[in-house]
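The data are passed on as follows:
___
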Amino acid sequence: MSSADSPVFYDPAGRRWRRVRRTWLALAVVVTSLAAIFIASVLINPVLPIFNIRPVASLPHTADIKPKPPNIPANPVEKKFKRAQAELQHALATTKRVVPAKRASEMAPVPAPAIPPPANPTSRPLSIGFYINWDESSLASLERNLDHLDWVIAEWSHLDNGKNANPLATDVDVPALNFIRQTRPQVRIIVMVQNLIDEKFDSGLLARNIADEASRQHLISALTNFVEGNKFGGVCVDFEEPPQSSQANLLVFMQELHDVFAPKGLTVIQTVPFDDPDWNYKSYAAVSDYLMLMAYDQHWAGSDAGPIASQSWFEQHLVSRMQQLQPAKTIIALGNYGYDWTEGENQADEVTCQEALIRARDSKVKISFDPGSRNPYFEYDEEDESHHRVWLLDAVTAYNEMRAASGYKPAGFAVWRLGSEDPSIWSILGTQQSGSPNVLNRIVYGYDVDFEGTGEVLKVISRPQDGWRNLDVDAANGFIKSEEFVVTPSSYVIQRGGDHPGLIALTFDDGPDPEWTPAILDILKQENVPATFFIIGKNGQAYPDLMRRIVNEGHEIGNHTFTHPNLGEIPASLTELELNATQRLIESQVGRSTVLFRPPYFGDAEADKPQEVEPAFQAQELGYLILGVRIDPDDWKMPVSADDIVDRTIKRAMDTNPETRGQVVLLHDSGGDRSATVQALPRLIHELRARGFRFVPVSDLAGLTREQVMPPLAASQRVFTRADAITFFFVSTGGWTLQWVFVIGIVLGLGRLIFIGALAFTQWLRSRRRERLHAGETYAPFVSVIVPAHNEEMVIKNTIRSLLVSEHKNYEIIVVDDGSQDKTAEIVRANFSDNDRIKLFSVPNGGKAAALNFGLRHATGEIVVALDADTLFAPQTIGALAHRFYDQRIGAVAGNAKVGNRINIVTRWQALEYITSQNMDRRAFASLNCITVVPGAVGAWRRDLLEQAGGFPADTLAEDQDLTLRIRRMGYNIGYEENALAWTEAPDRLRALARQRFRWAFGTLQCMRKHLDALFRPRYGTLGFIALPNVWIFQILFPLISPVMDLMLCYTLISAGLDWLQQPKGYSFTNLRQVLFYYALFLAIDWVAACFAFMLEKKEQWRLLWWLFLQRFCYRQVMYYVMIKSVAVATRGATVGWGKLDRKATVELQP
């Protein structure tokens, strides 16, 4: 193959690919090395000095310390704290419900219980816990307390509602199951089966499943398979609210179930309500291994407020039950949860014991122990003035109940439920009940935060700690008469330091920002005031010069994480990454590290949320100095004025109460409109100075120097910091570039739409003028229609028939069979051999360009019309094309190609594209005489110009585009004829569409390279200055970067959503509004332009417009793929075949 005939980009020796590969390899080595150094530096915690910040000795601290009873050791086990925290944060309010037969009235004080005296059984009762899937705290409780349990009753099955053949629906919690079997395999797992459907007990479903022997055996078989298949120890039947008419069937079911399970060594337990006369307790006990009494819900969520299980109610019904039951076959289930009734509402909130304690603590109310019911309760008011009454069952109520029941020697006690219980219950559950109740003094739970000292430099000095309650025990019978919560369980103790009256420190969070930070720095410089800037890493990465300016002007920099997440809601490992990444950024840009840290969303120096303190403790362990804040003028809340900021700051600064006064002022230099902060700052400085305050950096409050809180880097660290600096530079530049690509892309796209629309309208007006003048209608040159065909047996007959009905009569049809392996030639001969207009030639396969050139050599017409073999011409098409050549300046004419097989979403998208993109562009560029493609589907050429140009070129895959550019460069005009309609067959599958568009894209790339010398050449006018740049920008570059715009939008939406969730009141929508504005503006104008394109077309299907947005999005992804592939193939220099599509003969002429 000669070099002249070689395809563009063809490189048989592969030299280009080797050069490119070497370049990419070198770049990959550099990038990988930088990335490795950067990742290592971020993963390795920086070594920071540890400072011991002591509270000011002259200030009293005892007021800050809650009294604690002696000998309450702090809980040293971190794992326990984590589990407890999970219980608090995820505990659900749902508790086990048993509907009582009647409502109980308020209980009067009771005398000493008339029950059998406590006995000393030879073996302790079973300790049983109910496990549920729908609360993660249940798993946390299981993990912490499995050592105290003999059995676990797991709520892992229920009756199916009839949708499946299996009457049983199951849901095994595999992590819980594995934990039990790996930790204490001797614990017996009993699976619970319920008739609970959609949070309601389905009486009808239960009745149907036990109505006859067949139904019962079906259910028993399913239970047996489930229990044996999972090697469970038995089943706990919890069928509640059965119809009275089904009680007999339920009894038979339990007998039949026991008959099957007993020989297999499987346990059968049945739950029954504590006080329902409809249940025949003695009969049910006879057909079960154990009967479980659900001894709670005297008052329930739907009743009036009252004790959940008063001691007298419990003892009264216990006496009745035990007169009928054998203690050795009886298990008593104890409640450990609470109800929060709101006055005026019908339904109470179900709360865990932990939630109840926290509500009491937060409301600053005392928990009382009702002497009549011996249940704890409290009342509180919300800020909305709603009045609440909370009753709960805790470890003390469980103790009294167990003591009352222990004389009967029941088989065991069960607690409903794991995850909602008072953790202190595990000190008594499963014991002999002969020990002292003093084991309950300790409250094994705590989540508040205590502070010691004064100041805003914080240090966590104690981890989670147990609470304490005093108990009043009746010496006569050993029952607990009352409990008093002396110490509410706590989780952290924080030491406050840095209190120096008369000093004040300005701090700025969330920067730097290119608009507000320089303005603030200018004011600080003018006023000679030092400050501390707690920077967000991503902002510092974007504006490193501002970080350097902050340090160079004598201010301090602190760490405020890299992306400003809520650290209490992310894993500890991510917290470390946030801190380390920001630390490495600071080191790489200013040559210093920092020990100052303020967590995002830390609130203030009195933060009472453990999830806020835990990240602070983690940072402290890494060597950071934690800074709180007391003076927060809320400059981030909108709207806010400069007066508001000044007034709030002065008011807090002048506070003389050591418990509330502050010295650290929190302002913001980023995150939204900070104009009010900038306006307030000079006044704020003057007002505070006038009141005698002296401005200092936060290091002064901590008793440290600037060099101590921002130590310079050692020489050995500089190699790594330089690598980090390069990495941050490229990441920052990449982010900046993406943002500008988005904006520039939108702006260019908008400009192009408007430009194209105006030009297209101009062309439309000219075409209307030609029609009115009947220009060229008398010009009827002889036309040669060339149809290259390769394996076109499916479509060739219809194509020729559409040509034969042409209104233009002076033409010939030349069919070139390009080495077809099907019956293309035979079909033409069989159907058209007697037609003198049609000439059939069969040649060896040489490609489309060779077939066209062969036809050109045998053509006799003055005008040559070329069309694909899958295309149908409208009757007026040949004439409409030919008439345009009356103008001797016309060298070629492009017709109006349309999709003729609009049979699915893919082809409809292409129909939309042909109208709104391809034809719209041809209309527009026809006005400037710079059409770049006369489509192969419908186009006409002067034959003498084709011959001068050397025929259809074979060195590109886009011979129609290549030839169009040649004719235009010869000085001739390229016209567009909208009435020359042609209906072509488009790919109907995305894969086929991608193959076709790859051929088009690669051919376009070849043509642009081949005609590169015409770019910006004055002699080629609009072709070199408008058309070719349009192709390079919008057909080559834009497909490569257009997904960036979609990704940028998605990233912005996700980022904005996360930021808003973390701080909804202070979130600034500025960036989001900007991105959405540009994107929405582009979509709106694109829609208008598409509507305009349809207006210019005759008789089009407007319903196609509904696909516009989806089509644009999907096309961007397809074109991104094909353009990447095209560039890669061009780089490799490989040959590319035509990639002919399979014809399906689905084209129809549209009206």
User: Anything to note?
Assistant: The first strand starts at residue 126 and ends at 131. DSSP finds 32 helices and 37 strands in the chain. Residues 54-122 have pLDDT under 50 and may be disordered.
